Amino acid sequence: MALKKALYYGAVAIAVLIGVSVVVSVVSALLSLAWAIVSGIVSLAVFVGIVYVLYRTGAWLFGGDADRSASDSLGGSRSASASMSAASDATESRQDRLRRQYVEGQISEAEFERRIASELEAEERDDIDRELDDINRELERER
Question: Of the given ranges (50-59, 60-69, 75-84, 95-104), which has the lowest mean pLDDT?
Fold first, then answer.
């Protein structure tokens, strides 16, 4: 009888051990699957961040304006501030070009001063035109 009881308890102990082993294996598999998903998402986020930083750094180093080119390629219109900065960049480059021509002796001092004055007048006219357009838009909205 004692042997029979010992075999019964031994069989129950083995069954419990197998059951616990199966439960631990299933929980371990689920945890490893969850870990794989989380680490994949984190890795993808880090990769996208690195690519974005490299893209912006390249645009900064090579003088490209990533926001403007993306907007233009999608057919979007640039905002007023973006077009104003583009206009001031163009004006600056013309003024820089005039300075370089003057320094290199390609144009005289009088010619340099005349051209710079006309550039500044054109810039002032553009500013006045923009302000008048803004006022006209405000008046149209009030009507």
Answer: 75-84
Mean pLDDT of the chain: 81
Q: Does residue 93 share a domain with residue 52?
A: no
Mean pLDDT along residues 6-20: 94
Three-class secondary structure assignment of the chain: CHHHHHHHHHHHHHHHHHHHHHHHHHHHHHHHHHHHHHHHHHHHHHHHHHHHHHHHHHHHHCCCCHHHHHHHHCCCCCCHHHHHHHHHHHHHHHHHHHHHHHHCCCCCHHHHHHHHHHHHHHHHHHHHHHHHHHHHHHHHHHC
Judgement on whether residues 48 and 104 belong to the same structural domain of the protein: no
